[in-house]
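Hi! If you just cloned this repository, the fastest way to understand the data is to look at a raw example. We've pasted two of them here, unedited. The first protein comes first, obviously.
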Amino acid sequence: MERNKCIILFVFFVTLLCVNYTVDLVAASKALTEVHYTKPMMRVNVHDKSSHTRRSTQEQQADVCAGIIGPEWNMAKPGKSPCPTLVVWVPKRTSFTEFVKVNQHSEGFSIAIFCHALQLLPFNVRPIFKPFINDKGLSNGSYDQLLRRIEGQTCEAAAGDITMRGNRAQFVSFTIPYLNADVYMLVRGTHDLHQTLWTFFKPFTTRLWITLVFACFLTGFSLAFLEFREHNPEFASPFYRQLVMVIWFPISTFFLHEGTYWLIARYIEFNLANK
């Protein structure tokens, strides 16, 4: 009797391990992938709040970066700046103004990136943003003309969504690209449901299905071993019928409740009930 109890406890322990492994796989299949972009020497969240009111770029402001960075922008740095004042030309766009927008609220992802890059320098730089516009408030030319304006200048730059090209690199120097030059369009997607006979396999991964099948086989063979030792008449049939019974019994427990010939096979259930 003690030997049988040891066998039951061993089977119960192995079953718990399988269940624990199955739960981990289920959690892994439902996990959400969180992508974090962090550089080793720079942990900065680059953002530009459009609700944060600042003066217009057209007013030749010097506190645009202060409104983006915060109080840390005005902190003194020990290094000596080769350009204490940096003239920054900003292009006038009529589309995709999320990158650069020249209006009464200085906005733009490119401007925010530029200010954060200046903040990482070991010396202080005072940028003066100037819009590249004419007297009518319109764009004063193309991006090539804007870059030609700063050609050969020492303390002048351009901030915006300017594409790096070979002809432009001949007269200006570009920084490391911070975004792709691709244009995307957000449209309503349509999903075609092609339901087949194997659609019910999709909720679980392949590893999880293999684990479930292995757990069913383990449970069936464990109960078959216990019942065979007590000479259950059901196990006197041919081998292929015994194999079908071993495979079908764990699956049938999801739908039917069948008794066993030897009650020790349900020892765990009775033991929990008595407690």
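Ok, and the second one:
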Amino acid sequence: MTSTTSANALPNLISAQELHSLLQVQDSSSSLRVIPLDVSLVYPPASEYTQHIEGRIPNAKFFSMMRYASEDPGLQTAIMLPTPGRFVGAMRYLGIRRNDHIVCYDVPGFWTPARGAWMLKVFGHEKVSILNGGLAAWKAAGYSVESGPYSAATPSEYPFVQRDENMIAPFETIKSFFSGGANNNNRVVIDTRPIEEYRDIGHIPNSFSLPFSYLLAGPPPNDMRLLPKDQWSEIIAKVVGEDLFKKMQDKNSGVEVINTCGWGVTTCTLWLVLGHLGVSAKVFDESWDGYELRVGNPVEKGAPGELRPAEPTKGVTSFPELQIPIENLPDDGTPKVEEVSH
């Protein structure tokens, strides 16, 4: 295992044993602190914060991917990157320092930690890793968990930072992919939603389907660890074709790759995988949720090989039960953070 050394370095994947070793060697005098960060996400009425209080890795902190999100007042998308002010406000409240080594994890294993790691990288945090298998792997390895409420941390002086917009694909970029006609090999969109949603609800025209579950060791929720790295290339090449995959890896080919899913969460796992395979990909933060909530976007339906045009988007979500404004979420005790301006 190696530690990340720059803001541009990709997050490492570490095992429960490696995280345990990291936590054992640090002490109060160490300048490098290792912070397990629970970025679990469950949809209302369930509560990820309640889940965190009931059981967590010792000394872990909790970052709410939904409640600390930046809500688009027009689209009402479920989950978006926080604003710089809200992100920094959360880091300060949690007592996290800019040079801390953050290890993202979730309860099931690999549902949201890549999203948490991508978010941290968007804001330029240097030392970021992901616990492969999450809290489930930690428990399976025989390590103890904490439970119960805990006191708030001493606020940190985390510096004000901006987002790296080069890591994010806005809707305007997606629109440019299809507004000029058929997609081509210099414009690649990969959708990680379940094949049923891709096929039956619809998808962005000419996008590839690579269900998130294909990247896992077993079907969720049985084994939510990421597959070994030596299997990643074969999976990607099988979806997009070997020739296009090679072009995607060629920095001089001009190929632009964008990942999407339902809410911009599971597709960050593909961002991680592609990055370690030499492919620089962006994440469509709105993903299908935002795409569908805009009126008049072109839609395709059907599985690969049997595609058919469908009616344009009507500005209505396929999952209305998830469209709950942040301010209307039930109070589950999640600490509230202030948006800072500097």
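That's it. A detail worth noticing about the second one: The first helix runs from residue 16 to 25.
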